[in-house]
Amino acid sequence: xxxRRRLAAWAAKITEKICVYIFHRQGATWAGRIALGxxxxxxxxxxGQVRKEVFVVCGTNGKTTVNNLLCTALExxxxxxxxxxxxxxxxxxxxAAFALGTKLNGDLDADYACIEIDEASTIEVxxxxxxxxxxxxxxxxxxxxxxxxIDATIDILAKVVQSAPEMKLVLNGDDPLSAFLxxxxxxxFAAYGISERVIEGDETKEIREGRFCRHCGARLSYRFYHYxxxxxxxxxxxxxxxxxxxxxxxxxxxxxxxxxxxxGRYFRSxxxxxxxxxxxxxxxxxxxxxxxxxxxxxxxxxxFRPENGRMEEFRLRDKRILLNLAKNPTGFNQNINVIMQxxxxxxxxxVINDNDQDGADxxxxxxxxxxxLSGMGQGSVTASGIRCQDLMLRLKYAGISSELEPxxxxxxxxxxxxxxxxxYVLVNYTALFGTRNMLKRICRTGK
Length: 447
Prior knowledge:
Elements: H1 2-21, H2 28-38, H3 42-47, E1 53-58, H4 63-76, E2 81-83, H5 91-100, E3 112-116, H6 122-126, E4 133-136, H7 144-147, H8 150-162, E5 168-172, H9 176-185, E6 189-194, E7 221-227, E8 230-234, E9 247-253, E10 258-262, E11 265-269, H10 274-289, H11 297-303, E12 312-316, E13 319-325, H12 329-341, E14 347-351, E15 381-384, H13 388-397, E16 403-404, H14 408-417, E17 422-427, H15 429-445
């Protein structure tokens, strides 16, 4: 078995290099597929070699950021960590993370594992190993033709949580769907959240999936919302309410940087967006729940650089280009918030594809609050991607004038040639890797 595992690990490493350097593709999916084909037990064997504990991160939005920040924080504490940094989060991607992390002898040298898992893939992955902790970021409606309604995702997660009764949950207590899942599971859980109103006003146009009590169906009462269905809630009919918050973000500061305190400790990050307060809280709560003091957490925030198109910044001389993944209404709305908080002149390219991993149903575009882009002033908006015409139609009904350019590289190059110094590029899933490679090439070569 050890020889087979070693062959599988070597084959995975070779496959990944071929995919990256010859075919210019990410490579993790094929690496994991080949590793599992050669040694079907490789994932179980390697997960069993992790010396301390295995964290998995699930949830609709924020998985990659939370998982990579958690990994960075553990490394700042001096631990060796195996992690699927690239965001390849289905079974093959998870297998690749372990296989690519092995030494030449096919063994793993890791204290911890930080593994992001797609919610729909958790059942497959949990057949191979049972994690010690699951970090749950949030549960919003995602691609309808892949996941179905949010109830289907909750049912999947409920089954996998029940299959791992010793696993402890670290969940977003401000999300009634995540809180219900934790309370109903019978597993131990710790909750993080924000108990103060941060943004004044009620954004009534936002879709709020969890407004109704999962226990009795009555409408939940909210003291306030943060965004989506996140907020301070309670059910007057059956008593279901926001759980006790063990890791509470306080004194939230938003702007060019974000800052907050938790448990008497103050953290500051250069990363923008209210949603990143939740991401940072999730990673910190996971560390503390696992008994890690996290003395180097502020340093981890200082050195952490978002990768793989999660508010990833590219520089071309005096020009700044920000790339971010946005694949559902809540994610888009939070990205629009970040754009509108930027007081500098700016332009925007939005790329919408409908490939298999994106979902062919793009009706969710009508739930995005594109109307807010009317505050961009003189900044222009370009619709790009396979479904650019559908996007342009949605923008027209939002009262936003836009230009049409199906080819994202042509759209970006046009803005560069026009002298744009502050460009945001929002892409859904299958546009991410190609767009990121294109931006890296332009910034590397200068043309």
